[in-house]
Amino acid sequence: MRLGLVIDLDTCVGCHACAVACKEWNTSGTTAPLTDYNPYGAKPSGVWFNRIRHYEIGEYPYNKTVNFPMSCMHCENAECVTVCPTGASHKRPEDGIVLVDQDKCMGCNYCSWACPYGARELDRVSGTMKKCTLCIDRIYDMEIPEEERQPACVLTCPAHARMFGDFDDPESPVSRAVRERGGYQLLPELNYDPTNHYLPPRVHAPIPTEGLKKKAAIKVKEWVNRVIER
Amino acid sequence: MHAALAVIFLTLFSGGGFGLMALIAIINDLHIDGGLSPSQTLIGVLLSLVFVTIGMLSSTAHLANPKNAWRAFTRWRTSWLAREGVFAVSFYPFAIGYLVWVFLTGAPDARIGLTLASIAGLLGLITIFCQGMIYAVLRTIRQWNTPLVPANFYAMGLATGATLLAAIRVITGGNASIFIGLAIALIAAVALLKGIYYFWISRPAGPTIHTATGFNRSTVRLLDQGHTFGTFLTEEFGHILPQEKARSIKVLMYLLAVVVPIIALGVSLGAQSVPAVIVAAVSIVVGLGLERWLFFVEAQHVVNLYHGRQRC
After folding, report:
1. Measured between alpha carbons, how far is A97 from A76 in angstroms, rounded to an integer?
2. Can you give the CATH number for the domain in which A88 is found?
3. Is the Cβ pair A83, B78 closer than 8 Å?
4. Ranges of residues in chain B whose predicted pLDDT is under 50
5. Which residue positions in chain A have pLDDT lower than 50?
6. Considering only Cβ atoms within 10 Å of each terminal Cβ, which end of chain B, N or C, has fewer?
7. Distance CA B126, CA B76 (A)
8. Are residues A106 and B215, on separate chains, in Cβ contact within 8 Å?
């Protein structure tokens, strides 16, 4: 098994709900807590496993905003595991999930240097490295209904922009989405072979905004606006 | 990169200590310039151990959770950091053994003593390689991902060791011309290798914001990084040094690590001047400390592409 996420950049609305759901679940999960520093102070900061960036692609008027969630990619060539001197960082052979054993980590930061995706953050209070667990304490929990055995970020996404599944199964929804939508990996030239894939925005016909014939209703609306203008 | 003083001290001092031990072994093995006297050997090995210990102790200050530091010796099959730890610790029994041997017998060139010294010197050299590889294996930082890094670590460790050895020889009143020549040659090698390194990293290369996001055929601009204030990532990797400032610090570095030590060593070549060799030794350590600071600050991690940088 090779578990991971597919993130649909076409439908992601950039609401940060996945990041909040992640923080909420994992702050009482296996690597809890996700410490906050100075949460009510002037410059709050803290440990998060999932961060959403926002990019502008292209130049006006041919530009587009793309929201870009990023968490651990659970790479096949996980250099963070290779460089770890203590054995705290490990990649599970049965499902490919990369984890940090909180009882073994000595907080040397070396794995975060080796990670190109910024997936690892040091908890300055516990002194250990923390990262996305792919909600390992949800996806194997036999006490909860089967449809809820998914990472918190996937369950909460209101735009269904996140998918969770097994990339080793060519007919799994994630494998099919990657195949059919041209899913890609980030920084492929570094050869980390990340499991998580990103689906590019779909190509839509542009919605014209200039030189349009005005509909009658709009004409009426504009006339009303002029009349009642104060 | 954030330049942590603990990590700067680790490679600066332990590199010099290992270089010193390796040179002591080579000089006594081959009886170069008559070899070192028992007291010179004692001072040299002791200084090497002090330098290595300063480096090792300061490295633990970098750990956020040092109670698990003992586990760092376990993953030597894959991790250069673990290998460094294993070789650095195995250096101690042989170096201390040689120290005790010379102290008890007063014969630094006896066969048993030389065997201990040679093994210690070899382990020290292997440790320097491991220290270089810790940085050189990281594909995420192009300024480090080059074989020039371990090569530079060798040049700097051996040049520091040679300068210390020349200082010991002059202070204890021996003829030091060969040792001073060795030190000047090794410092020149540092200047050259460091020059090649700076030339190498000045060429644009490595990943861009395009491959980082997958949008290869248009401009990509970060609108918002998703957090209002700093995170671990921006604090650890976000540092940037303006080119003008970097250039003037490099000039200062070359002055302290290369020019001043070579002039001071040259002065003591004829005059056997004790203050001059002390100036040379202090200057090279300070200068190479500055070099190590630059090594960190100039390293640009690819994660910066997700915080607005266009290329690294």
Report:
1. 9
2. 3.30.70.20
3. yes
4. none
5. none
6. N
7. 13
8. no
